[in-house]
Amino acid sequence: MAIAVIGGTGQQGRGLARRFAAAGERVIVGSRDPDRARAAVAAWGETPQPIEVADNAAAAALGDAIVLAVPFASLDALLDELGPRLKPGSIVIDVTVPVTFVSGKMAMIDVAEGSAAEHVRARLPSAIRMAAAFKTIPASLLDRLDRSLDCDEFVCSDSDEARVRAAAMVELVAGVRAVPIGPLSRARFVEHLTALAIAVNRTHRIHDARFRVVGLP
Ligand SMILES: NC(=O)c1ccc[n+]([C@@H]2O[C@H](COP(=O)([O-])OP(=O)(O)OC[C@H]3O[C@@H](n4cnc5c(N)ncnc54)[C@H](OP(=O)(O)O)[C@@H]3O)[C@@H](O)[C@H]2O)c1
Question: What is the DSSP letter of 65?
Fold first, then answer.
C-alpha cells in the first residue's frame, strides 16, 4: 500500500508519515514545495522504507490511501486540486480539525456540513471513499517514534470498507487501538474531543492529552 500524506511536513503529518514508514509502508509526503519537503524528510533520519516526496497532486495520484493533514482553512483549494488526481479505489483519510486560535484563544470553526470530515466528503468525487481518523492523536507524541501512544483513536466512515481500512492504518501506529464509531457524521463529536484534549493540555501544561475508552469488550 502506498500512503500519501498531504501536509506531511507539518506537525501531525510528519509523525504520521514517520510512523507509517516505521511500520514498513510505502510513504509519499505531499507538499506545496517538494524541495523544502525533501530537505525536511532527509533530517528525519532513517526508516525501514525511505520516505518519498512529491508535490501534493503527484502524491495524491500515487496514493492508495491519501491522508489529509493540512489546516482546515486550506482544504477547499487543495481538494479542488487533488480530487481529479485520485486513483479509483483509493481512500481519503481526513485528519483535519476545524479549530482556530485567535490571540491564543481556541474556538471551533462553524462548519456548514457539521464537521470537517463531512466538509471534505462534500468536496470529493462521489466514487472515492473516505474516513475520518487520527484527529485526537497528539502530534508531539506521534513524532516520538521511541514511544508507544497507549491510547484509542476513533474512526468513522459511511463506507464499511473505508472504515476497516482506516482502522488498520490507525493500528499501524504503535500502541493505538482503533475504535470504530459508525458513520462519518459522528466526526463532529471527535473534532470536539480534539478541542477538549487541547483544553486539557492547556489547563495542565502538558502536550499529549489523548483518549482511552473503557468498557469495550
Ligand atoms: N497538531 C496536532 O496535534 C493535531 C492533532 C490532530 C489533528 N490535527 C489536524 O491536522 C491538521 C494539520 O495540523 P498541523 O498541526 O500538522 O498543521 P501545520 O503544521 O500548520 O500544517 C501542516 C502542513 O499543511 C501544509 N499547508 C499549510 N498551509 C497550507 C495551505 N494553505 N495549502 C496547502 N497546504 C498547506 C504545510 O505543508 P507544505 O508547506 O509542505 O505544503 C504544512 O506543513 C490540522 O487540520 C489539525 O487540526 C493536528
Answer: E
Q: Is the CB of 69 under 6 A from ligand 1?
A: yes
Other Cβ atoms within 10 Å of 149 Cβ, number: 21
DSSP per-residue string spanning 134-146: SSSS-HHHHT-TT
The rounded distance, in Å, linking the Cα atoms of 99 and 216 is: 29
97 grid coordinates: 480539525
Q: Is the CB of 194 under 6 A from ligand 1?
A: yes
Tens digit of each residue's pLDDT (9 = 90 or more) over 8-58: 999 999 999 999 999 999 999 999 999 999 999 999 988 888 999 999 999
Nearest ligand 1 atom, CA 138: 3
Taking the whole predicted model, whether its pTM rises above 0.85 is answered as yes
